[in-house]
Write a structure and sequence with these properties.
402 residues, alpha/beta, Rossmann fold, 2 domains, seven-stranded parallel β-sheet, 13 strands, globular
Length: 402
């Protein structure tokens, strides 16, 4: 009852803002987001935040200041949000910054848009951070920028606690999950083709996603990023150890539920790993149930496929978030090299669906996957509960925008 009352109050605020829009010019919100396109999660931050703004601030005129909208992402965003304006040129960005009423730093792995937010601060524009993770270095070096914000919503309580302990004083600090929890993109036509190709039935397959402990950006952007030999060594040391545990989860799923599995990527570099780290080392009786993607995909297709899946098992963070956004059960296998963001699963009370890779066995993952597979209705109810709580917190985040 308390949660329903809260959401009703947010809807009332949204309706009131619509009425106000009839009496004064629309609020111009400049959204700094869209960090990269080699990761369906980094694509997903933006449409998630745009969906929240559309729902709770329908009076606002939203301009996007992106880092990267290649690979067809511009078209994806404009199809879903036809009123959106995207500032691509330097002149457009300068104009948008000058004319905006509020500068919103979107969800991300940190203060990715700190430079642009600093520009907003220097010219006196109010600004805020919506659903970010903070690291210790940012807390040491960006204190003045954080202190000047109207609000800082952290997508994990570990970051929130670290900020509170830092001594930086802000008018408002709160928990605001990654805006990807609000994503509603779909490409059902592409999903239908993929599912037919791999003989996947709606609600009767598992999606599994790998991840190396350190994202090899030296492979993704070899022209600008030099190999980090220490991180290469860590990846080589743990790749097999980590994915052997994931394979136990896949094996148990197939043997106990007789449902199929789709091995799919969250990032471009993971496509070849689907075979070498997962498929090729599965037991012979399991392989016939497992399909392997041989390409990267974009967020709308992934959203549609995850929405039609029975469950998701992933060492990446955003595929599970996209699944939860669709009410689909998702298990996160968290690596210690990942950032504080994995705390979100605990913050959203999904403790049974998160495993710290160094502290658990493959058998524990297997047992949880079997439990989900045996009672999918209950698991979907749990996913919907987590999604609804995320929406409650995200609504509060948007409500904080002046």
């Amino acid at each position: 009852m308390i949660r329903r009352t809260f959401l009703q109050s947010i809807f009332a605020l949204s309706a009131a803002s619509t009425l106000r829009a009839q009496d004064k010019p629309a609020t111009r919100i400049l959204l700094r987001s869209s960090w990269q396109t080699v990761n369906i999660g980094d694509i997903a931050h933006t449409p998630g935040m745009l969906a929240l703004l559309e729902k709770y601030r329908p009076d606002a005129e939203v301009i996007l200041w992106p880092s990267s909208v290649d690979r067809g992402v511009t078209e994806i965003l404009m199809k879903r949000f036809p009123k959106l304006k995207i500032a691509l040129s330097k002149a457009d960005r300068e104009k948008a910054l000058k004319e905006c009423d509020f500068f919103l730093h979107g969800s991300g792995p940190g203060l990715v848009g700190a430079k642009e937010t600093e520009l907003a601060r220097k010219i006196g524009k109010p600004y805020g951070f919506g659903g970010v993770t903070l690291n210790d270095d940012e807390l040491k070096t960006k204190g003045e920028l954080l202190a000047g914000a109207k609000f800082v919503f952290l997508r994990d309580t570990d970051s929130m606690k670290a900020l509170q302990k830092s001594g930086i004083e802000l008018p408002k600090v709160d928990f605001g999950p990654d805006a990807t929890f609000a994503i509603d993109l779909r490409d059902d036509d592409a999903a239908a083709v993929l599912m037919k190709e791999f003989r996947l039935e709606q609600g009767k397959f598992l999606c599994a996603i790998p991840r190396l402990r350190w994202t090899p950006y030296w492979e993704i952007h070899p022209e600008t990023v030099k190999p980090n030999l220490e991180r290469v060594k860590v990846n080589e040391e743990f790749a097999e150890k980590d994915h052997a545990k994931i394979r136990e989860g896949i094996t148990a799923w197939v043997r106990e539920t007789k449902m199929r599995v789709l091995l799919c990527p969250e990032m471009t570099y993971e496509v070849p790993l689907l075979r070498t780290l997962l498929f090729e080392k599965l037991p012979d009786d399991v392989k016939p149930f497992v399909a392997v993607m041989d390409r990267y995909w974009l967020t709308p297709e992934a959203c549609s496929v995850y929405a039609k899946a029975a469950a998701v098992l992933s060492s990446e963070q955003h595929s599970p978030i996209i699944a939860i956004a669709a009410g689909v059960p998702a298990v996160l296998v968290r690596q210690p090299t990942d950032t504080r963001k994995g705390q979100m699963w605990y913050d959203l009370k999904m403790n049974d669906w998160v495993f710290e890779i160094d502290n658990i066995s493959g058998e524990q993952i297997a047992n949880q996957m079997v439990k989900i597979g045996r009672d999918l209705p209950s698991a979907r109810q749990e996913a919907a509960r987590a999604r609804d709580y995320a929406h409650e917190r995200m609504a509060a985040m948007i409500a904080a925008i002046p």
